[in-house]
Specification:
DNA binding, five-stranded antiparallel beta sheet, 159 residues, phosphorelay response regulator activity
Amino acid sequence: MKILINETEAAAAQQLKDIIATFDYDVEILRMSGQMGSLLSGLNIPAPPQRYLVRSGTRLISLPVSDIAYFYVRDRMSCIRTNNNTDHLLEKSLDDICAELDARDFFRLNRQCIAHYGSIVKVQAWFNGKLKVQVKPALEEDIIVSRLRAPEFRKWLGE
């Protein structure tokens, strides 16, 4: 096992090495060079959004991500359904939304729906290895997870 550290983490890395060495003798601490450290720290990975700006008639509403049950497509428009069962239009594609959301909280169930973990009520086995998902508040259409995405979805749920 190799532990990659920068100069400021040397003491913590040594403690970690001592703990790991009790069950794995092949532990090595590698120090990052200045170039490698600056390269890694230079990566600007954007944080997931905390809120979305949505339209409600002529008004603009700032909607916290914690209030969102799921994103879905209706009549080729991206929509948000909140935990209070209100719908809002969003001017982004589900692909763009999925790319910026926190993957620990949201999962792309199919081409029409991205659901929050807390909105999933029931998952049942469906035909040919697919899964049928029930969300709250309820969506009018059935939400089917494909056979190919089903193992990833089960893993995300904590199986």
